[in-house]
Amino acid sequence: MSLLPKTFHDFSSKQYWNTFFARRGDKAFEWYGEYAELCGMLHKYVRPQDNILVAGCGNSTLSADMYKVGYKSITNVDNSEVVIRRMEEQHLTSCPEMRWALMDLTNLDSGDEEFSCVLDKAALDAMFTDGSPEIVDTVNKYFAEVSRVLRVGGRFVCISLLQEHIVTHLLSWFSQHSWMIRVCRCEDAERSQSESGQFSFPVFVIVCTKFKQMPNLRTVLESQLDGDEVRRAENASQVVERVRELQQYALLRHTLHTKSLAGEDTAVELCDPSTGKTRYTIHLVDSLRKTHSLRFAVFIVPHGREREWLFGTQTGRERLAENAGARRLIVVHLQRDQTYPSLAGVQDELSGRVMELAPTGLPSNTKVPFLSVGAELGEVHEIWRGESELSGGYVVEEVEAPGAPPLRRLVFLNNQNVIQSEARLVEAKEKKKRKKVGKESREIEDGKKGKGKESRETEDGRRGRGKGKDGEGSREGGVAGGDSGGGDGGTRPVDFSHLSCQHHLAMVGGMALAPPAPSQPQTNTPTPHVLLLGLGGGLLATYIHKYFPKTKMMGVDLDPAMAQVAQQFFGLVPDHRLRVEICDGLDFIKKAADQGTKFDFIMFDVDSKDGSLGLSCPPAAFLEPCFLELVVACLTQPGVLIVNLVCRDQELRGRLMQEIKSVFPVVLSQGIPEEVNRVLFCSRALPRDPNKLKTRFEKGLTGLNGALKRRIKCSEDVIDVREVMENLTVLTEEEHKIFEG
After folding, report:
1. What are the extents of the domains in the chain?
2. How far apart are CA 257 and CA 194, in angstroms?
């Protein structure tokens, strides 16, 4: 398969063309290739028996080279008398039948339909310097003359670098005049540039075939931009975009050959040319260390593990490159809607493209190592597909990735880079042994096995929001399973003892702050009431319901369609202690405040649909002081508001903290390592002294750990108290500015 590249590297047309004009010097024609590089295209679209007009011939030897191989009927025109005289004298003996004429391309001294081919090598580019009205008018006159002197069925063959204003206008003009258009890429010309050590600009050959104009005749627009396959384009914008992508990719390759991209997040999509769908996303990581012995390597991320911190964030990938000891590492992400034969098959598909991104000076015979976590690619199985009126299409999938526990995920199709909910599944008792990796790839320890991401935002902005809704399922002994209702999948039980999302565990830890302490075993302990706004897949609600047996829980979410997903695939079971209501969280709080309903803990785990504000979670309306006053009215006197805050805008984050502090005098902020999330614990009753507050929290977490270990029946601490305290800040009136750093 020949993969088509797209790049997300910072790119501007101005930067691209400035690079070209700075490097071409006085030898502009060399960039377009000579006859040896262009002959493959020319022989395909220009016949030896054609009567050929070479427009703007300049000093090029192209027509003379064509003459020598049998193209005898050639007329060369240029508007420079010096050029015409010099070229005629130079080729008088070697090309006696070739004609030379001084002409203006916008007013050719030739008869109507005199030629069967007009050949333009860089003349249009030289004429069409910008998109100003005066120049466009000149270009239109040139095109009109080409149309006049060409007979029906004749071809205008234009060799160009296709600046955006050129390709856009060219396609528009010839489409309006009912010509058939084919845009081809001349890779031989590019290859010649690359081999000579120059910046390899994409060179294009545009073939426009003149048809007799007829009413309602639809223009045929085709492209041949990668390999030999010709593809029909639906519209001109598709071709313009594809040309631009190739130019972006060329600039990226040039950048990679001339400097390090250390500290930059650069990605390239490789697409299946037959469908246009992305088949691979590759991230380029350059290490700051020049001492690494491995100059270049490729790491293939197991299918389904692309969004883990180590593979899914810029910081994680930099760590991965350090672990691999590579100066440049290509990190390859597979796509959920694609199938892959094997690790070796993926290597075969990628080998050509990844070598284009190798550092300069790498010997051509270098054997580049392909790294991975193991010998298997992993598998992603779609077990359910549905539609939500609020959220659009979604899928539930199960992931079997080497080096990680099996997972079940909910993904919305309008944002497939985001995992909405993720649950760990109970593993089979017998596990397949990991095979040794052969010579073509080797295993690297990732150090992040099974760390999930429901409702979290990683450092590079990829969010995993838990937005599945409530429902019914079966739950026994810490797992949930049963009939999935999804056909042939979803029957494996969910492991409720594990919270995939680290900020969910932090929110659970916040319950150690206020009485009645859920960890206390006394039978006369009052029942804590918890309100969760943003139910998600129900995993946080189920965790609290199961492991805090005296707690009464109310889960609120907006999307009713997700309730079916939650009950079929994520095991949420409403009962007398766990109630679910489908409504807007803002309306629920207002109603609860009016009715005098009280909760010991109110949790915000609601995502924002408006990402333009820089606030991903919760929506801004949930943090307005007037709404927070309603929240206070719904809290018991010692109650605590627990907020999952995801805000990338530093200035906005500072303002939000000031507003929260105006309502809640006591605010603790717990950072989540390797995530953007911060969990806020807000109270009006907790001690104001930071030392006393931290001591109380640490003591409460220790007690909570003991209770969870007994209930889950595990020997290790569920909450890393030391890590929590290291990432905990007590926010005083003056300290809100720390959130701006």
Report:
1. 16-234, 255-372, 502-513+529-740
2. 11
Which two structure tokens, joined as six digits, stand for 378? Answer: 């992993």
Class for domain 502-513+529-740, per CATH?
alpha beta
**Domain 16-234 and domain 502-513+529-740 have a common topology:** yes
Beta strands in 176-324 (DSSP E): 180-185, 204-209, 221-224, 231-232, 266-271, 278-286, 294-300
Which pair of structure tokens corresponds to residue 516? Answer: 């009645």
**Cα Rg, the chain, nearest whole Å:** 33
Closest CA to 539 of 482, 466, 615: 466
Both structure tokens of 640:
């605590």
pLDDT at 472 (0 to 100): 32
Architecture of domain 16-234: 3-Layer(aba) Sandwich (3.40)
Tell me how far apart the alpha carbons of residues 172 and 240 are, in angstroms, rounded to a whole number: 11
Supply 24's token pair: 């071409």
- The sheet with strand 421-424 has its strands ordered as 379-388, 392-400, 407-412, 421-424
Residue 470: per-residue pLDDT: 33
Q: What is the pLDDT at residue 91?
A: 93
Instruction: Name which of 730, 609, 627 is nearest 680 in CA terms.
Output: 730
**pLDDT of the residue at 124:** 95
CA 716 to chain centre: 37
Check residue 675 and give its pLDDT.
82
Q: Are 555 and 541 in contact (CB under 8 A)?
A: yes
8 A C-beta contact, residue 8 and residue 267 = yes
- Between CA 644 and CA 686 the distance in angstroms is 19
Q: Which two tokens stand for residue 204?
A: 């294009």
User: Are β-strands 74-78 and 150-160 bridged in parallel, bridged antiparallel, or unpaired?
Assistant: unpaired
Bond from prior residue into 363 cis (ω within 30 degrees of 0)? no
Counting as low any pLDDT under 50, the low residues of the chain are 11-12, 25-26, 28, 430-443, 445-489, 521-523, 733-741
- d(CA 365, CA 360) in angstroms, rounded, equals 13
Distance CA 1, CA 537 (A): 38
Determine contact, residues 468/562, Cβ cutoff 8 Å. yes
Give the CA distances from residue 167 to residues 41, 54, 141, 213, in Å, rounded to whole numbers and listed in that order: 19, 20, 17, 22
Report the relative pairing of strands 441-443 and 421-424 from DSSP bridges.
unpaired
Q: How many CB atoms lie within 10 A of CB 409?
A: 26
Amino acid, res. 548: F
Count CB neighbours of 671 within 10 A: 18
DSSP 569: I
Distances (CA, A) of 368 to 347, 426, 475, 721: 10, 38, 49, 44
Residue 411 to residue 386: CA distance in whole angstroms: 11
Q: Can you say how many angstroms the Cα of residue 489 is from the centroid of all Cα atoms in its chain?
A: 28
Instruction: Give the pair of three-digit tokens for residue 682.
Output: 């807000």
How many whole angstroms separate alpha carbon 282 and alpha carbon 296? Answer: 14
Q: CA-CA distance, 533 to 738, in Å (whole number)?
A: 27
Tally: H helices and E strands in the chain: 20, 34
Burial class (CB in 10 A: 0-12, 13-18, 19+), 714: exposed
What's the pTM value of the predicted model, to 2 decimals? 0.66
How far apart (Å, rounded) are the C-alpha atoms in residues 459 and 312?
9
Per-residue tokens: 376 = 């298997």
State the Cα–Cα distance between residues 551 and 683, nearest whole angstrom. 20
At residue 424, φ and ψ (nearest 5 deg) are -80, 140
For 17, list phi and psi in degrees, rounded to 5.
Answer: -75, -30
Containing 505, the helix (H) or strand (E) segment is helix 502-509
Contacting residues for 435 by C-beta, under 8 A, at least 6 apart: 374, 375, 376
Cα distance between residue 726 and residue 54, in whole Å: 74
DSSP 321-361: HHHHTEEEEEEEEE-TT-----HHHHHHHHHHHHHTTSPTT
